[in-house]
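The instructor's notes for this session suggest beginning with a concrete chain rather than abstract definitions. Hand out the sequence below and ask the class to guess, before any prediction is shown, which regions might be ordered.
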Amino acid sequence: MLQKLSDAELEIMKIIWENPEKTTLFSCLMEQLAAQGKPCQKNTLIVLLSRLVGKGYLGATKVGRRNEYVPLISETAYQTAQTQHFIDKVYEGSVKGLVTNLITGDMLTGEEYEELRALLEGGRKD
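After discussion, reveal the predicted structure:
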């Protein structure tokens, strides 16, 4: 199972996942965090990136004086693993329990409910 990410690590991964390029530069991360109103000290970002590399989420390559980072885990793979962990922990592995709670807890908009219903009626597309 994938290791859980801290909030700060997840913010970095979101920037990397959203990057249309295959690699993300350190300077790009600094700029994006600042643009999102979450400026980060250089040393703090270095530590966070080092942790992400250590956890297997990122690959890092030194090109000249620059570090380039590439995601080793897709956003979908992370979301799937975290969703499964949540379902196991909170609903004792019952997806039905989660869906029931979403519906009975009035947590879905009418549009979301209809989309979910259509997905369920359509069945799996294996």
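Then share the key points. The helical segments are 7-18, 26-35, 42-54, 75-91, 95-104, 110-122. The chain has two domains: 7-71, 75-122.
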